[in-house]
Design brief:
- The chain is an alpha/beta fold.
- The chain is 34% helix and 19% strand.
- It is built from six helices and seven strands.
- A seven-stranded mixed sheet has the order 4-3-2-5-6-1-7, sandwiched between helices.
- Strand 2 and strand 3 form a beta hairpin.
- The longest helix is centred in the first third of the chain and has 15 residues.
- The protein is globular, with a radius of gyration of 16 Å.
């Protein structure tokens, strides 16, 4: 099973690392699928807006919903997340070189979100890399049977892991 993960305690750091990794692999000609997250700050009005960009060049989908200043509830728009899952699923093929997902979050920990696509990619022998926060790490490790590789937030480490897999090159046509 070729699955790796990164963690960070700094908000947005894993998102930026995975976006940079996706860009690096795409520039090398690797066929990349998945999503990377883009956070946009709100001017003095609560938490950021969360968007995901479907890889390699698909749409940007807003996955957060504005609940108002000071709201404490979950901001995730589950329907928008499932739209992103469907977009990624439609582009996943045996020619995909890697599946990059912004995170294995609460939805995945509960059996929803990108969880099924992760399993599909692994069954097709497509490597997967994702971000995981401390709240969902136990569920992620259980899901992967403890076989996932932890990686540091370093582009050379991410690229080194991918290159060491010795996968056949699946390049963009």
């Amino acid at each position: 099973m070729n699955i790796a993960y990164i963690t960070s305690t700094q908000r947005g750091e894993a998102d930026r690392a995975l976006a940079q990794f996706a860009a690096r692999l795409t520039a090398r000609g690797t066929r990349v699928a998945g999503v990377v997250q883009i956070n946009t700050e709100r001017q003095g009005d609560g938490p950021c807006d969360m968007d995901v960009r479907v890889l390699p060049d698909g749409p940007v989908i807003r996955i957060s919903q504005y609940l108002g200043r000071g709201a404490k509830g979950c901001r995730l728009n589950a329907a928008a997340l499932e739209q992103a899952v469907a977009e990624v699923g439609a582009g996943l093929s045996d020619e995909t070189g890697i599946l990059i997902l912004n995170k294995f979050g609460k939805h995945e920990a509960e059996g929803r979100g990108f969880r099924e696509l992760i399993g599909d990619a692994l069954m097709r022998d497509i490597p997967v890399i994702t971000g995981v926060n401390a709240l969902n790490l136990e569920a992620f490790l259980e899901f992967t049977g403890g076989l996932a590789t932890p990686l540091p937030l370093c582009q050379d480490a991410l690229t080194g892991w991918f290159d060491a897999l010795g996968r056949p090159v699946r390049r963009v046509a």
